Amino acid sequence: MTKASTLSIEQETDTHFLARMDTASAEERDAVFADLAERALAGDELAARTIRVLVLPACRRIADGKGEHLVAALVDAAYEEVLDWAVTEGWATR
Questions:
Q1: Alpha-carbon span 51 to 56, nearest angstrom
Q2: Is 94 a member of any domain?
Q3: How high is the mean pLDDT in each 10-residue block of the chain (94 residues)?
Q4: 93 lies in a domain?
Q5: Burial level of 67, CB count in 10 A (0-12/13-18/19+)?
């Protein structure tokens, strides 16, 4: 029962966070991704999950119904791209 309840809360939180990111400026989004990437590279699993949640809608649009395996591959690639970007821009180190 608690597990199902937690999942529901996470999904509502994800929806709320995604909506806030949609209205954020480019600078605000960059700052959020930079912070999350820094934390993910330091081993923070919640930060890594959050990056994946944030890139998921775009990956689903790109996959355009071609299957969940493609969505998963796109999310993995986008996640790595965010980490690489953060390192290249000096926000984080590997």
A1: 9
A2: no
A3: 41 77 91 96 94 91 92 95 97 91
A4: no
A5: exposed
Question: What's the 3-state SS for 34-57?
Answer: HHHHHHHHCCCHHHHHHHHHHHHH
The range of the structural domain enclosing residue 7 comes to 2-88
Q: What is the pTM of this model?
A: 0.82
3-state SS, residue 67:
coil
In a domain, 22, yes or no: yes
Q: Which two tokens stand for residue 37?
A: 């990437």
SS3 at position 1:
coil
Q: How far apart are CA 2 and CA 6, in angstroms?
A: 6
Amino acid at 57: P
| Rounded CA separation 46/1 (Å) | 22
- The domain tally of the chain equals 1
